[in-house]
């Protein structure tokens, strides 16, 4: 098995996947335990959230917020969709957590020398936007919130007054972004097992969703095909030995909105162990 070697061209790509992202939390905690830092990291949706704690060097923070706090605060569920128009309690997750309960170390993040980007989808264009922000805590939160705003079950978010949604709509696995920036020695962290594909046909979108944003509707409709092409590229480059992929070894039983903390803890441990094999 190929081992991780950090060079100036090393990049780390973090897929999203909702609560399946606890696998990534395990991977990143292992990296922090081993003292592994990448010159460039890019995260999408849940990957963007996990990546922030990795960039600030807060080992265990992502696990604590996603697993330990879930039983106490129940921040995912239909009740939030009914009462706040959002399947997740974003006020708790992106304000109370980083400000009070699990304080985010903005100072450490601002001082780190490595580059970090988070991906969102522009509702006007349907294209991916890549943001790197270290100095403005408010803007950092607005970007990661937008990157995590799932279509249909989360409200549209705004970055610099521009409507945005989940980065995974336009660029689920931003490997090409890393390569375009010159990072060709990459590690990709996926939250699905090898061979997984989405249904290879356009998604149907009810007419009343996003009527003001036709390009967004098209991006959502074609996301499955885009995702499958990205996975095929990842597997092709993996087979050529041009990148390392860390992924679950078995089909995932954890749902995007999983509430079973035993399942989540098991998946976190799988992520940690999968990363350990690369050292």
Report on the architecture of this protein.
This protein has helices at residues 22-34, 46-55, 61-73, 78-84, 90-101, 106-111, 137-147, 175-180, 214-221, 223-239, 261-276; strands spanning 10-14, 40-44, 115-122, 128-131, 157-159, 162-166, 185-189, 243-246. The model has no long low-confidence stretch (mean pLDDT 94). It has 279 residues and is α/β, with parallel strands linked by helices. The radius of gyration is 17 Å and the shape is globular.
Q: The biggest beta sheet, please? A: 8 strands, mixed
Give the SSE string: EHEHHHHHEEHEEHEHHEH
Question: Which spans of ≥5 residues are poorly predicted at pLDDT below 50?
Answer: none
Query: What structural category do the secondary elements indicate?
Result: alpha/beta
Principal-axes shape call: globular
**β-strand number:** 8
Strand content: 5-15%
Characteristic terms for this protein:
single chain, 279 residues, alpha/beta, 8-stranded mixed sheet, 11 helices, 8 strands
Quick overview of this protein structure:
By secondary structure, the protein is an alpha/beta fold. It is built from 11 helices and 8 strands.
What does the secondary structure layout of this molecule look like, with pairings?
Elements: E1 10-14, H1 22-34, E2 40-44, H2 46-55, H3 61-73, H4 78-84, H5 90-101, H6 106-111, E3 115-122, E4 128-131, H7 137-147, E5 157-159, E6 162-166, H8 175-180, E7 185-189, H9 214-221, H10 223-239, E8 243-246, H11 261-276
Parallel strand pairs: 1-2, 1-7, 2-3, 7-8
Antiparallel strand pairs: 3-4, 3-6, 5-6
